[in-house]
Amino acid sequence: MRTCQCASPRCSTSSCPAFPNLQHSRRKTMTTVETDTARWSLPGPADMPTDQLQVQLEVYSETVLLRGFEGDTNWVRTVSADEMANVFTRHLGFSSGLLPDNALWWNQGETGQMVALWRPPQVWPVALQREAFQPPARLRIPMPGLVFVCSPARAPWVYAAQERPTDSEQRLYRAPAFNVFRDGRTCPGSHRFPEEVGLIPESFFRSFFSLTGDTKERSKKHPDNLQALWEELDGQSDYPVEDLVPQCTVGQAMAVSEGRRGYH
Protein backbone atom coordinates (compact mmCIF):
# COMPACT_ATOMS: atom_id res chain seq x y z
CA MET A 1 0.00 0.00 0.00
CA ARG A 2 1.39 3.38 -1.02
CA THR A 3 0.89 6.48 1.04
CA CYS A 4 1.93 10.01 0.20
CA GLN A 5 5.33 10.93 1.65
CA CYS A 6 5.13 14.62 0.71
CA ALA A 7 5.49 17.12 3.53
CA SER A 8 3.26 19.68 1.86
CA PRO A 9 -0.38 19.65 3.02
CA ARG A 10 -1.32 20.84 -0.48
CA CYS A 11 0.00 17.71 -2.14
CA SER A 12 -2.13 16.60 -5.11
CA THR A 13 -2.09 12.85 -5.71
CA SER A 14 -2.15 13.53 -9.45
CA SER A 15 1.43 14.86 -9.22
CA CYS A 16 2.76 13.15 -6.08
CA PRO A 17 5.75 10.81 -6.74
CA ALA A 18 4.08 8.21 -4.55
CA PHE A 19 1.35 7.86 -7.18
CA PRO A 20 3.13 7.86 -10.57
CA ASN A 21 0.38 5.91 -12.34
CA LEU A 22 -2.64 7.94 -11.24
CA GLN A 23 -2.66 10.01 -14.42
CA HIS A 24 -3.16 6.78 -16.37
CA SER A 25 -5.81 5.61 -13.91
CA ARG A 26 -7.79 8.82 -14.37
CA ARG A 27 -8.50 7.81 -17.97
CA LYS A 28 -10.32 4.70 -16.82
CA THR A 29 -13.99 4.67 -15.95
CA MET A 30 -13.23 3.14 -12.55
CA THR A 31 -10.24 1.74 -10.69
CA THR A 32 -9.55 0.44 -7.19
CA VAL A 33 -6.56 1.48 -5.09
CA GLU A 34 -5.50 0.44 -1.63
CA THR A 35 -5.53 3.42 0.70
CA ASP A 36 -5.72 4.59 4.26
CA THR A 37 -9.32 5.53 5.02
CA ALA A 38 -9.60 9.06 6.37
CA ARG A 39 -11.70 9.74 9.41
CA TRP A 40 -13.31 12.90 10.70
CA SER A 41 -14.53 13.93 14.11
CA LEU A 42 -16.09 16.95 15.74
CA PRO A 43 -13.68 19.22 17.62
CA GLY A 44 -13.93 18.58 21.32
CA PRO A 45 -13.08 15.84 23.83
CA ALA A 46 -10.79 13.07 22.62
CA ASP A 47 -13.44 10.43 23.28
CA MET A 48 -15.87 11.93 20.78
CA PRO A 49 -16.83 9.30 18.16
CA THR A 50 -15.19 9.58 14.74
CA ASP A 51 -17.06 9.53 11.47
CA GLN A 52 -15.54 7.36 8.74
CA LEU A 53 -15.11 9.00 5.34
CA GLN A 54 -17.24 7.27 2.69
CA VAL A 55 -16.83 9.41 -0.42
CA GLN A 56 -15.01 12.57 -1.48
CA LEU A 57 -15.09 14.79 -4.56
CA GLU A 58 -11.74 15.92 -6.00
CA VAL A 59 -11.79 18.90 -8.36
CA TYR A 60 -8.72 19.25 -10.61
CA SER A 61 -8.04 21.81 -13.31
CA GLU A 62 -9.03 19.43 -16.10
CA THR A 63 -11.25 16.80 -14.49
CA VAL A 64 -13.38 15.91 -11.49
CA LEU A 65 -12.88 12.61 -9.64
CA LEU A 66 -15.25 10.86 -7.28
CA ARG A 67 -13.40 8.70 -4.74
CA GLY A 68 -15.25 6.17 -2.59
CA PHE A 69 -13.90 4.28 0.43
CA GLU A 70 -14.85 0.66 1.11
CA GLY A 71 -12.91 -1.06 3.87
CA ASP A 72 -9.19 -1.11 3.07
CA THR A 73 -9.62 -0.14 -0.57
CA ASN A 74 -11.19 2.68 -2.51
CA TRP A 75 -12.55 3.24 -5.97
CA VAL A 76 -12.09 6.25 -8.22
CA ARG A 77 -13.99 7.36 -11.28
CA THR A 78 -14.36 10.51 -13.33
CA VAL A 79 -17.64 12.41 -13.08
CA SER A 80 -19.21 15.13 -15.20
CA ALA A 81 -20.88 18.36 -14.17
CA ASP A 82 -24.17 16.95 -15.50
CA GLU A 83 -23.90 13.93 -13.20
CA MET A 84 -23.30 16.13 -10.16
CA ALA A 85 -26.18 18.42 -11.10
CA ASN A 86 -28.51 15.43 -11.47
CA VAL A 87 -27.56 14.13 -8.02
CA PHE A 88 -28.21 17.48 -6.36
CA THR A 89 -31.46 17.90 -8.27
CA ARG A 90 -32.73 14.51 -7.09
CA HIS A 91 -31.96 15.32 -3.47
CA LEU A 92 -32.92 19.00 -3.42
CA GLY A 93 -35.58 19.27 -6.09
CA PHE A 94 -36.36 22.37 -8.12
CA SER A 95 -39.74 23.87 -8.79
CA SER A 96 -40.90 27.21 -10.08
CA GLY A 97 -44.01 27.14 -7.93
CA LEU A 98 -46.81 29.42 -9.06
CA LEU A 99 -45.44 32.00 -11.48
CA PRO A 100 -46.62 35.62 -11.73
CA ASP A 101 -48.88 36.76 -14.55
CA ASN A 102 -47.11 37.26 -17.87
CA ALA A 103 -44.15 35.05 -16.88
CA LEU A 104 -42.01 34.06 -19.89
CA TRP A 105 -39.43 31.71 -18.38
CA TRP A 106 -37.94 30.60 -15.08
CA ASN A 107 -34.46 29.32 -14.30
CA GLN A 108 -31.91 28.91 -11.55
CA GLY A 109 -29.20 31.49 -12.17
CA GLU A 110 -25.99 32.52 -10.41
CA THR A 111 -27.92 34.70 -7.98
CA GLY A 112 -30.76 32.26 -7.38
CA GLN A 113 -34.17 32.03 -8.98
CA MET A 114 -34.72 34.16 -12.08
CA VAL A 115 -38.13 34.89 -13.60
CA ALA A 116 -38.61 36.72 -16.90
CA LEU A 117 -41.75 38.86 -16.97
CA TRP A 118 -43.50 40.48 -19.92
CA ARG A 119 -45.00 43.94 -19.78
CA PRO A 120 -46.96 44.96 -22.92
CA PRO A 121 -46.58 48.41 -24.51
CA GLN A 122 -48.02 51.09 -22.25
CA VAL A 123 -47.51 54.59 -20.88
CA TRP A 124 -45.45 54.74 -17.69
CA PRO A 125 -45.33 57.68 -15.26
CA VAL A 126 -41.66 58.39 -14.50
CA ALA A 127 -39.58 60.77 -12.39
CA LEU A 128 -36.50 62.13 -14.18
CA GLN A 129 -33.86 63.74 -11.97
CA ARG A 130 -32.54 66.45 -14.30
CA GLU A 131 -30.57 68.32 -11.63
CA ALA A 132 -29.13 67.26 -8.30
CA PHE A 133 -30.97 68.48 -5.20
CA GLN A 134 -33.91 69.64 -7.32
CA PRO A 135 -37.39 68.09 -7.58
CA PRO A 136 -37.57 65.54 -10.42
CA ALA A 137 -39.49 66.21 -13.61
CA ARG A 138 -42.68 64.17 -13.82
CA LEU A 139 -43.19 62.69 -17.28
CA ARG A 140 -45.52 60.21 -18.93
CA ILE A 141 -43.47 58.12 -21.34
CA PRO A 142 -44.85 55.48 -23.74
CA MET A 143 -42.65 52.39 -23.73
CA PRO A 144 -42.52 49.42 -26.09
CA GLY A 145 -43.14 45.94 -24.73
CA LEU A 146 -40.51 45.14 -22.10
CA VAL A 147 -38.93 41.94 -20.79
CA PHE A 148 -37.83 42.11 -17.15
CA VAL A 149 -35.54 39.32 -15.92
CA CYS A 150 -36.10 39.44 -12.18
CA SER A 151 -34.59 37.94 -9.04
CA PRO A 152 -36.06 38.58 -5.56
CA ALA A 153 -34.98 41.95 -4.09
CA ARG A 154 -32.48 42.56 -6.91
CA ALA A 155 -32.30 45.07 -9.73
CA PRO A 156 -33.67 43.44 -12.90
CA TRP A 157 -32.31 43.10 -16.42
CA VAL A 158 -34.51 44.92 -18.95
CA TYR A 159 -34.93 44.42 -22.69
CA ALA A 160 -37.39 45.85 -25.21
CA ALA A 161 -39.40 43.74 -27.66
CA GLN A 162 -41.73 44.46 -30.55
CA GLU A 163 -44.08 41.69 -29.40
CA ARG A 164 -44.39 39.15 -26.61
CA PRO A 165 -41.49 36.66 -26.99
CA THR A 166 -42.53 33.18 -28.12
CA ASP A 167 -39.32 31.92 -29.75
CA SER A 168 -35.68 31.77 -28.65
CA GLU A 169 -34.54 33.31 -31.95
CA GLN A 170 -36.79 36.32 -31.55
CA ARG A 171 -34.99 39.68 -31.48
CA LEU A 172 -34.75 41.80 -28.33
CA TYR A 173 -33.78 45.48 -28.27
CA ARG A 174 -32.09 47.94 -25.95
CA ALA A 175 -34.52 49.32 -23.42
CA PRO A 176 -34.93 53.07 -24.18
CA ALA A 177 -34.66 54.02 -20.53
CA PHE A 178 -32.23 55.60 -18.10
CA ASN A 179 -30.60 53.55 -15.31
CA VAL A 180 -30.03 50.69 -17.77
CA PHE A 181 -26.51 49.54 -18.63
CA ARG A 182 -25.49 48.62 -22.16
CA ASP A 183 -25.89 44.88 -21.51
CA GLY A 184 -29.40 45.22 -20.04
CA ARG A 185 -28.53 45.27 -16.35
CA THR A 186 -30.10 48.06 -14.35
CA CYS A 187 -28.58 50.32 -11.71
CA PRO A 188 -30.66 50.33 -8.52
CA GLY A 189 -28.95 53.31 -6.89
CA SER A 190 -30.59 53.67 -3.49
CA HIS A 191 -33.83 52.10 -4.70
CA ARG A 192 -34.90 48.87 -2.99
CA PHE A 193 -36.62 46.25 -5.09
CA PRO A 194 -39.26 43.97 -3.55
CA GLU A 195 -38.83 40.31 -2.71
CA GLU A 196 -41.90 39.45 -4.77
CA VAL A 197 -40.66 39.29 -8.37
CA GLY A 198 -44.09 40.05 -9.82
CA LEU A 199 -43.83 43.59 -8.42
CA ILE A 200 -40.34 44.38 -9.73
CA PRO A 201 -41.28 45.86 -13.16
CA GLU A 202 -43.60 48.42 -11.58
CA SER A 203 -41.01 49.09 -8.87
CA PHE A 204 -38.43 49.83 -11.58
CA PHE A 205 -40.58 52.66 -12.95
CA ARG A 206 -41.19 54.06 -9.47
CA SER A 207 -37.45 54.62 -8.97
CA PHE A 208 -35.86 57.97 -9.83
CA PHE A 209 -34.19 58.04 -13.25
CA SER A 210 -30.88 59.85 -13.55
CA LEU A 211 -29.15 61.46 -16.54
CA THR A 212 -25.81 59.97 -15.48
CA GLY A 213 -24.41 56.72 -16.83
CA ASP A 214 -24.14 55.27 -20.32
CA THR A 215 -27.29 56.25 -22.23
CA LYS A 216 -26.01 56.06 -25.81
CA GLU A 217 -27.42 53.85 -28.55
CA ARG A 218 -30.87 53.57 -27.01
CA SER A 219 -32.57 55.26 -29.96
CA LYS A 220 -31.91 55.45 -33.70
CA LYS A 221 -33.25 59.00 -33.93
CA HIS A 222 -31.41 60.23 -30.82
CA PRO A 223 -28.39 57.87 -30.51
CA ASP A 224 -26.47 60.26 -28.23
CA ASN A 225 -29.31 61.99 -26.38
CA LEU A 226 -31.79 59.81 -24.52
CA GLN A 227 -33.13 62.85 -22.68
CA ALA A 228 -34.21 64.39 -26.01
CA LEU A 229 -36.08 61.17 -26.81
CA TRP A 230 -37.93 61.25 -23.49
CA GLU A 231 -38.81 64.92 -23.86
CA GLU A 232 -40.17 64.17 -27.32
CA LEU A 233 -42.19 61.17 -26.12
CA ASP A 234 -43.64 62.86 -23.02
CA GLY A 235 -47.42 62.88 -23.31
CA GLN A 236 -47.52 60.59 -26.37
CA SER A 237 -49.51 57.36 -26.38
CA ASP A 238 -47.30 54.98 -28.41
CA TYR A 239 -43.60 54.28 -28.69
CA PRO A 240 -42.23 54.25 -32.28
CA VAL A 241 -40.93 50.66 -32.42
CA GLU A 242 -39.00 51.38 -35.63
CA ASP A 243 -36.71 53.50 -33.43
CA LEU A 244 -35.58 50.51 -31.31
CA VAL A 245 -31.89 49.47 -31.40
CA PRO A 246 -31.26 45.68 -31.70
CA GLN A 247 -29.43 44.03 -28.80
CA CYS A 248 -29.67 40.22 -28.66
CA THR A 249 -31.98 37.24 -29.11
CA VAL A 250 -34.35 35.79 -26.54
CA GLY A 251 -32.11 32.71 -26.33
CA GLN A 252 -29.06 34.84 -25.54
CA ALA A 253 -30.97 36.69 -22.82
CA MET A 254 -32.02 33.34 -21.34
CA ALA A 255 -28.41 32.14 -21.36
CA VAL A 256 -27.23 35.31 -19.62
CA SER A 257 -29.86 34.89 -16.89
CA GLU A 258 -28.53 31.36 -16.30
CA GLY A 259 -24.96 32.67 -16.06
CA ARG A 260 -23.80 30.60 -19.05
CA ARG A 261 -22.49 33.28 -21.40
CA GLY A 262 -22.68 36.94 -22.24
CA TYR A 263 -22.88 39.04 -25.38
CA HIS A 264 -21.93 42.52 -26.57
How would you explain this protein's 3D organization?
With 264 residues, the chain is of the alpha+beta class. The protein has 2 domains: 22-90, no CATH class; 103-257, no CATH class. The protein is 15% helix and 30% strand. The chain contains 5 helices and 15 strands. The strands form 4 sheets. The protein has a 6-stranded antiparallel sheet with strand order 7-8-11-12-13-15. Mean pLDDT is 83; it is low at 1-30.
Quick recap:
It contains 5 helices and 15 strands. By secondary structure, the protein is α+β, with helices and mostly antiparallel strands.
Order of helices and strands: HEEEEEEHEEEEEEEHEHEH
Radius of gyration using CA atoms only: 27 Å
Query: Reading side by side through the largest sheet, how are the strands ordered?
Result: 7-8-11-12-13-15
- Residue share in β-strands: 25-35%
Percentage of residues in helical conformation: 10-25%
**Domains, number:** 2
The shape is: elongated
Poorly predicted runs of 5 or more residues: 1-30
> Span from first to last CA?
55 Å
Mean pLDDT: 83
List the total number of helices. Answer: 5
The counted number of beta strands is 15
Secondary-structure-based class equals alpha+beta
Largest sheet: 6 strands, antiparallel
Write the layout of secondary structure elements.
Layout: H1 22-25, E1 31-34, E2 39-41, E3 50-52, E4 55-59, E5 64-70, E6 73-78, H2 81-92, E7 103-109, E8 112-119, E9 122-129, E10 137-143, E11 145-150, E12 157-161, E13 171-174, H3 200-206, E14 208-210, H4 226-233, E15 246-249, H5 250-257
Parallel strand pairs: 9-14
Antiparallel strand pairs: 1-6, 2-3, 4-5, 5-6, 7-8, 8-11, 9-10, 11-12, 12-13, 13-15
